[in-house]
Specification:
The structure is a homodimer of 231-residue chains. Chain A has 231 residues and is α/β, with parallel strands linked by helices. In chain A, 38% of the residues lie in helices and 18% in strands. Chains A, B: Its EC number is 4.2.1.103.
């Protein structure tokens, strides 16, 4: 239970990130003792999230310090990163020196496209999860999945659960519980519709229908490149 | 179940806002049909949140369109707004024309300081809730409290529950359930420590100890001003 001091958390920030994928964990991180959070992107101009407004990166991919925890949120933009060699190289370089390599939601696809989940059990948004196999990961339908130093969270809101699990691993259960209490994380969803196991099957089918062919093709192209670079 | 088109949601953005208070609801709002979210502050320069990084306002207090839903997140900065006459006037003006007047966490203190929760049942972060009586509201220990067109959410993470309740009121249960499924909001906290009812009593006492005397005095000064303006 010894943590580096300060603990450096590096999150990749990118256009069309799902805002809550980032902020759920970041809010937990903000309440941890002696912890720095860096938001890294190509440059430090404001980046538009999927909520339609902008967050300002705190550093660049070139200048970012080495992470103790590398974290990749998801969102539509996570798939655009497949073609961004500089961002994927950044993830590989950071991952090599990080104690933990992590993601939430479809951020696991970006990690996998960088070759960082090959042969690892990992999760993602439930509607995209089966596709993760195309990139060499082992799709695992759990809220938070730990395989070695890889920790992945499922869709969007799972980022809060993920971050508390991570906090407990690094700082111990008492610190994680204190953060949970301060964030009043005693959830009371008004409906039981948050998982494909409990939601109306028609609703589930309609949501799966949103994972379109173009996205599958992007994943397959990324998988082909990953195969080439491994040869 | 008729909603205005587009539905205009106006969130007050301010320095030291608790980031998740804003983003939990904003993420739900971002998945609603025909909905605009505006982030309003004095000017459109980036505003530093309690996570240490910045969000860019989309409009100013002067230029902001009339809200259908007025929303105030909480955080340390919510108490600094007590002395900000322009911001409180903005809230009063917007509230007069809004269908719903809402807050999460200590945002209810800002609404109350503007005189917008007088005589209303309302909630807030559990550790601050009793103080809400000083500002004329009726502290109500529930996750989401509805009193007329006022809806308040409890601490931080309750914003997600609050926003789903609001979405159901405006768009109907089916739309809210669809958003819940897309955000995979099927929470699985690793500990049962998110409420003072379940957390370790020592942890609860330590967290209450953080609500300091200075904050209570600020609330009392705001209450005195509210009393004067009501005379």
């Amino acid at each position: 239970m010894v943590s580096p001091s300060p603990l450096r958390i590096v999150a990749l920030l990118f256009p069309d990130v799902t805002q809550l994928d980032l902020t759920g964990p970041a809010q937990v991180f903000s309440r941890l003792p002696d912890t720095e959070v860096h938001l890294a992107w190509h440059d430090t101009r404001p980046v538009v999230t999927d909520c339609g407004w902008s967050i300002v990166p705190t550093t660049t991919l070139a200048d970012c310090p080495q992470a103790d925890v590398l974290f990749v949120p998801g969102g539509k933009g996570a798939f655009d990163l497949f073609d961004d060699k500089v961002a994927l190289d950044f993830l590989r370089r950071q991952a090599a020196g990080a104690s933990w390599v992590t993601s939430v939601c479809t951020g696991s696809f970006t990690l996998a496209a960088a070759g960082l989940l090959t042969g690892r059990r990992a999760t993602s948004h439930w509607s995209a999860l089966p596709m993760l196999a195309e990139l060499g990961a082992i799709p695992t339908s759990e809220r938070v999945v730990i395989d070695g130093n890889r920790i992945t969270g499922a869709g969007v809101t799972s980022g809060i659960d993920f971050a508390l699990v991570l906090a407990a691993r690094i700082f111990g259960d008492d610190v994680a519980k204190r953060v949970q209490l301060r964030l009043e994380y005693d959830p009371a969803p008004p409906f039981d519709a948050g998982s494909p196991a409990t939601a109306d099957p028609e609703l589930v089918a309609a949501t799966i229908g949103r994972v379109d062919e173009a996205r599958l093709q992007a994943v397959r192209r990324a998988a082909a490149r990953l195969g080439e670079s491994a040869r």
